[in-house]
Structure formats: C-alpha cells, structure tokens
Amino acid sequence: MKKIATIFIFSIIIYSCKLTDENDVEEKVVKNTTTKDSTVVNDKDENGCLSSAGYVWSKVNNECVKGYSGIQLNPMNVANNEDETASAYVLFNEDASMAEVFLPNDTTSIVLTRSTEGKPWVYKDWQLIAWKGYVLKKGGENKYMGDAEMGKKVLGSDTEQ
Question: Phi and psi (nearest 5°) for 101?
C-alpha cells in the first residue's frame, strides 16, 4: 500500500508540475521583448544611402558619400567658422568639369558645370570660382569660401595660452 501511495503522490506531483519545452518559452520571451523594445528603422534614401550615418547621394560621382566630405567652404559672414554644420562642401567629378555643392541644412545638392578649364563652375545664379582656394557666389554675392584642401580644418590654435 505504501508503494502505491508513493507512486500515486509522485504521479500527482509530476502531473501538477507542467513540463514545457524550454526553447518554446525562450522564443516567446524573445518575441515579446523584440516587439516591445525595438523598432524597425529604414533611414536609407531612394539611392540606398544611409542618411543617419551622414551619407548622401553624389550626382557627379554616382555613389553615396559623407555629406561633409570634399572641400569645406565656410560662410563669409562667420569669421573662423568652427561649426561644420554651417559650412558648404564641394565635390568634383574626375575631370573637374562638374562641381557638386552641398549646402548646409539642405537635403539636395547643386551641380555646377564649367565650359573650359580656368572658367568658373556655373548653375543659374550660383558660381564657384577658383581663387585663393574657392569662392562660392550667389547672384554676385560671396556666400562661402575655403582653401583647396579636403576634409576638416584646424581653425584655432592647438597650444595653450
């Protein structure tokens, strides 16, 4: 009788402790966590450039480029500009017959062309002139200028005063 009672109690304990598949439980937890904690972000533009990483489509080079790559042109009205987001950037095609200008706070670019070497690049009322680096004009007014070096510039002193 004790054996039957022990087996009966043991059977009840096993039956009451519902055994589940651990993988099934883990999958449900992952599915719930993923649904609540993550969002699907598709921040690629129509050309496949990852805009959250600062990439934009270059019309003259037909590829995704960093928006702040190229030659940095600083605004004329801000002396010693250190705010790169206020600068314009210029990229050239291989033979430098076209210049693509990326203006600050603008999602599109302007493509300027020149007829022959030594002439300015022009598009409507925009002109890019190679003079002591580059000067970008709009309607006769100087808007941006910079040297002919690519990339970031060190504008301030790096020594302690």
Answer: -110, 125
Q: Which class for 115: exposed (0-12), middle (13-18), buried (19 or more C-beta within 10 A)? A: exposed
Q: Up-side HSE of residue 139: CA atoms within 13 Å toward CB? A: 0
Percent of the chain with pLDDT over 70: 68
Q: Whole-angstrom Cα distance, residue 88 to residue 29?
A: 49
Helix (H) or strand (E) holding 11: helix 2-16
Q: pLDDT higher for 155 or 124? A: 124
CA distance 38 to 158: 43
User: What is the 8-class DSSP label of residue 53?
Assistant: G
The DSSP secondary-structure symbol of 19 reads: -
Which of the 8 DSSP states describes residue 150?
B
Rounded Cα distance between 111 and 58, Å, is 10
